[in-house]
Amino acid sequence: MRMYDIILKKREGGELSTEEINYFVKEYTKGTIPDYQASALLMAIFLKKMSRRETVDLTKAMMNSGDVLDLSQIEGVVVDKHSTGGVGDKTTLILAPLIASCGIPMAKMAGRGLGHTGGTIDKLESIEGFNTQMSEEDFIQQVNKIGVAISGQTGDLAPADKKIYALRDVTATVDNLSLIASSVMSKKLASGAQGILLDVKMGNGAFMKSEEDAVELGKIMIDIGTNMSKDVVAIISDMEQPLGRTVGNAIEVKEAIEVLQGGGPEDLVELCLVLGSELLLLAGLNVTREEARNLIKEKIKSREAFRKFVELVKAQGGKEEQVLHPETLPKGKYEIKFISDNTQYIAHIEAEKVGSCALLLGAGRENKESKIDLGVGIYLNKKVGEQVNKGEAIATIYANDEERGKQTIEKLKTCYQYSDTPIEERKLIYGIYD
Ligand code: URA
What we know:
Helices cover 46% and strands 15% of the residues.
């Protein structure tokens, strides 16, 4: 088989065979296919697209390129949740202990971020001592003991995706439905859960800008999972503005703690109730959607969910004190406010741009070697639909470098649009598909 022929076939709009896809994934992972040929094929796929069959084959090939976790030693149906990525998305920090407090095992492999802020693992490292690198054995043991564990990848999961994603990132071939679906699903399938909940983000802060594309992506991923005998549900949720009021790392942990203690911003709480209910249904709990929602609310109200988070932090070596007193979590030393010149309504907040403001502050990684500043971040005092009075804060920045903080405020000002009259509330959930 020659890579040249495979590229040519796709360039001409042909359908690649299973063998051709397997050859590409295997040889590229091994390093025998050079980046320039892999890039050419990715661009041909981007332009000519892939059929459902090709997409499923690509997913399987990437999933099988490394370890596939066996979670059969965990008692109960293991469920997992994945978000296609959004600004201010801290739902995993909330849902893992919350679902575990309902008696459903949460064995969560999470990632580091290469983007506006860190990923779940980076965020958890805001808590002193929290160990995010567990062995597979310890990971499984902890889930059986306390019902929840959150770790960075234990084995070498889907190494083909890591290599291909890095190449897509620099060759303008990320936002293709088949390539995104196979990338996400290869990792999820290799992580070993039986039930997979996908939070497909839609809007200016997401890969999928339109509802139509988001639904299509959700359906492709459901198709892939079903083909591999998994139970998959996709929720389409809004990412036109950041989720919740915080964007950063420690500042997001703080907000997650607020939700677990019964507070927190309305949109974040609502999304957690919706995602949480679906996770309970996926786990096979014999309840209606409404009963699932009520059970989750009850676990928050009784503080069982928060206690489970404390238990999780302790089990993984984190400092309990910081969870009990979140004001002791890292926080940028310069607090700079963005003050409103007028009394007005917030009409729009550009999520993507707020994300790049967080990156400018140092909350995310520009490349693999970048070091994250866990204490910096943005607090959105006002969100879309809310009124702000003249002289009141629209947002607050926490920086460790005053100059960068000032630059960020200037950039943040360009993320907002205003209205003199009240504006309609945005929808949060656009659909649930299975
Ligand atoms: N998230 C992934 O894991 N892969 C993609 O291709 C896009 C988002």
